[in-house]
Amino acid sequence: MSTGAINDTQMVIITGMSGAGKTVAIQSFEDLGFFCVDNLPPTLLPKFLELMEDSGNKMNKVALVMDLRGREFFDHLFKALDDFTETSWVTPQILFLDADDSTLVRRYKETRRSHPLAPSGLPLEGIQMERDLLEELKGRAQIIYNTSKMKPKELRERIISEFSANNKSAFTVNVMSFGFKHGLPIDADLVFDVRFLPNPHYIDHMRPKTGLDEEVYNYVMKWNETNKFLEKVTGLLSFMLPHYKREGKSQLVIAIGCTGGQHRSVALTEYIAHFFENDYHTRITHRDIERRKEQTP
């Protein structure tokens, strides 16, 4: 069995709350050239996978909608998702669409539709039942959109931006420098504290400079403890990054923090990002590097 022709296969499983925008989502994937199937019973997922594999490269972009219309098959879905860990040529991404209860109730009233789980009852009763049933599936999702404040056009634009051919669900490693005195970055997945390293701030002529300046960069890098730290952290990340990617994570934010976010964290962020740039799409952000300029009267 040859799998080389479909190494670049994309599979997106679209699910979530009824009324959260799955119809708009599947239409958006169709516009992106995905082969789309609405309401595929999870019991057929293994067979569908075989069909994709047999097609070679003809079905290399697939989007499947699975929701509570097939609720009796959800145990099969979880088993099928677990079986994907043994499949090397495709890693499915679960896109879970959610919305606040009040928004979902309003949408049901606007469309005059009944909730599929409460056809003769109040929409809120069906929504609460559905939320409980989907809790485990939401926990497995790699991507969650809350569409409460999104118009259909905005949801469409977000999907096209994230899943377009140029992006192709690439795994991006975002390396960010920051200063602890300005607060932890709320979007960080991993945080490393480098305040134990010698600080160029206490050298007068280096104080106004940053880790982007060669003199400061070389000063940070010359210490044995810096080299030890970089050896250990790059080794740890070299182990972790492939696993994050295999789990379907679209990006990872690695935050490197020093006191002010000017010197040590900036230099080490540059080093770490360039260390991995040949294997991953990397992006560098220096969150607090301009803080000093902003605070200068």
From TrEMBL:
Residues binding GTP: D67, L68, R69, G70
Keywords carried by this UniProt record: ATP-binding, GTP-binding, Nucleotide-binding
GO terms assigned for molecular function: ATP binding; GTP binding
Positions that bind ATP: G16, M17, S18, G19, A20, G21, K22, T23
Domain RapZ-like N-terminal span(s) in chain numbering: 10-166
Start and end residues of each RapZ C-terminal domain: 172-290
Domain of life: Bacteria
InterPro entries given in the database record: P-loop_NTPase, RapZ-like, RapZ-like_N, RapZ_C
HAMAP family: RapZ_like
Name of the protein: RNase adapter RapZ
